[in-house]
Design brief:
The chain is α+β, with helices and mostly antiparallel strands. It folds into three domains: 6-48 and 56-64 and 101-172 and 265-329, FAD/NAD(P)-binding domain (3-Layer(bba) Sandwich); 178-262, D-Amino Acid Oxidase, Chain A, domain 2, CATH 3.30.9; 343-394, no CATH class. Helix content is 33%, strand content 25%. The chain is built from twelve helices and 21 strands. The protein has helices spanning 16-27, 54-60, 102-115, 161-166, 234-241, 243-249, 293-312, 316-342, 344-349, 358-369, 379-385, 387-394; strands at 6-12, 32-36, 68-70, 72-77, 80-85, 97-99, 119-122, 125-129, 138-142, 145-154, 169-171, 178-185, 198-203, 206-212, 217-224, 253-254, 259-262, 266-268, 272-273, 276-278, 284-285. The strands form four sheets. Strands 1, 2, 7, 8, 9, 10, 19 and 20 form an eight-stranded mixed beta sheet that branches. Strands 4, 5, 12, 13, 14, 15, 16 and 17 form an eight-stranded mixed beta sheet that branches. The longest helix is centred in the C-terminal third of the chain and has 27 residues, at 316-342. It is globular, with a radius of gyration of 21 Å. The relative contact order is 0.17. Bound molecules: flavin-adenine dinucleotide.
Length: 401
């Protein structure tokens, strides 16, 4: 092969997770090679970012110039629409995010990584040979030949390359949704949304996302629960059930064929082992309803780099701590996602204002802003653990127990 065949750290995947961990390792002087099958980033889903993702994005030094600014999220139910402005979060450290066509965003991440000294090579990985004895290298087998790594990081996305090979990939027991995605032009903005907001338009059995870009295009997706009952032309049927999405798409032009996605909510049972670790979707991906995917990639990548630079490649307790923090930080997001699908999230969010404690409303917005990884704001954790009880209160049902 014409590409380098060894590095201290080999990262599979040049998406948000892989470029983040690679950049921070390279900036600390480590020898890092990113392996990706695509020399140019492809358009993918995952286009709506969360404000607290800006902590890592700004540390990376990625310019967000030209991307659509996102200041809030609108959730519709029936005829009603409710806006969550990020400026009302408990902490407004990061009060806005961006809507990013992913090929462009990922290209900027790769440029920053290259500037930090990360090397890239283009190859499709087939298998990883893990060391049988301490001190032996990991060998990544690719269609361009083997690549030897002192330490291997799988950041190759939701197919969970290494977790599948090791038999440690688990689908979520409850969240088994499927999605269709495309881009439109000419999508309408309707009150109460402010230009740049993401819209989540719900209906019985699923929801649409509408993510506006600065160039006039809008990413539109449909997420369907297993019991949605849609068959045949599921897109048209879902639009008929969701007047709020249909009104925004009236007169708009679809720019690309629908792309189907499924089995996306899955975890690896372990995030690291001797000579390897997982970052981003390769470790875990939750349902997309709260747009948390790229935030998890950035946080897992940056914190993995920190743990490795502290000696985590030789001391597994450092990676244990990294994994435990990641799982604990993600827990409220999972609780909120489950509450979204059992209806309690929207029951609480839509409760009459006089029934809402302001601190809970702001806690929900903190959660939607992704304020989960740094200490000092317990509200998103408290509110996420109580959606069921709060829904019982606003619906005036007897509280269990
Ligand atoms: C329906 C849906 C909607 C979503 N919406 C959002 C959203 O609005 N906001 C959000 O933040 N997140 C969203 N996500 C999640 C988001 O898409 C992911 O969290 C994010 O893209 C994962 O980044 P990553 O770096 O882990 O992997 P990826 O971005 O998938 O990058 C993986 C890289 O690895 C490379 N690769 C893969 N396999 C191989 C191989 N065998 N050999 C060589 N290279 C390989 C690929 O070419 C790719 O460049 C959504 C997900 C779904 C399913």
């Amino acid at each position: 092969m014409t590409t380098p065949e060894a590095a201290s750290f080999v990262v599979l995947g040049g998406g948000p997770a892989g470029t983040t961990v690679a950049t921070f390792l390279a900036r600390a002087g480590r020898d890092v090679l990113v392996v990706d099958q695509e020399s140019t980033p492809q358009p993918v889903v995952g286009e709506s970012l969360l404000p607290f993702g800006q902590r890592v994005i700004s540390a990376l030094g990625v310019s967000m110039d030209g991307f659509m600014v996102k200041r809030g999220a609108v959730f519709t139910r029936g005829e009603r629409s409710l806006r969550f402005p990020f400026e009302d979060a408990v902490r407004d450290t990061w009060s806005h995010a961006y809507q990013v066509p992913r090929a462009e965003f990922d290209a900027r991440l790769r440029t920053v990584a290259q500037e930090a000294g990360v090397r890239f090579t283009w190859a499709k990985a087939d298998r990883v040979d893990l060391p049988e004895a301490a001190g032996e290298p990991v060998v990544l087998q690719t269609d361009q030949g083997p690549i030897r790594a002192g330490f291997f990081i799988d950041a190759a996305g939701r197919r969970k390359f290494l977790a599948r090979q090791l038999g440690i990939r688990e689908l979520h027991p409850v969240l088994r949704n499927a999605a269709l995605a495309t881009h439109y032009t000419g999508v309408r903005t309707l009150p109460p949304e402010v230009e740049g907001d993401i819209v989540i338009a719900t209906f019985e059995g699923g929801w649409f996302w509408l993510i506006p870009f600065a160039d006039g295009r809008t990413s539109v997706g449909l997420v369907m629960t297993p019991s949605c009952g849609l068959k045949g032309d599921r897109w048209a049927q879902a639009l008929a059930l969701c007047p709020q999405a249909a009104a925004r798409l009236e007169g708009a032009t679809c720019l690309a064929p629908l792309r189907g996605l499924q089995d996306f909510t899955a975890y690896a049972k372990r995030f690291h082992g001797p000579g390897w670790a997982l970052a981003g979707d390769a470790a875990m991906f939750l349902d997309p309803v709260f747009s948390s995917g790229v935030l998890l990639c950035l946080e897992s990548g940056e914190r993995l780099a920190r743990a490795l630079l502290a000696g985590g490649d030789a001391d597994p307790t450092l990676l244990d701590a990294w994994e435990a923090h990641l799982r604990a930080s993600v827990k409220p997001m999972e609780q909120a996602i489950l509450a979204f699908y059992d209806g309690s999230f929207l029951d609480v969010a839509y409760a009459p204002r006089e029934m809402q404690a302001e601190r809970y409303r702001r806690g929900i917005i903190s959660l939607l802003a992704g304020d989960l990884f740094e200490p000092g704001n317990p509200m998103p954790f408290r509110v996420a653990a109580r959606f069921g009880t709060l829904a019982d209160i606003v619906n005036r049902r007897p509280v269990a127990g």
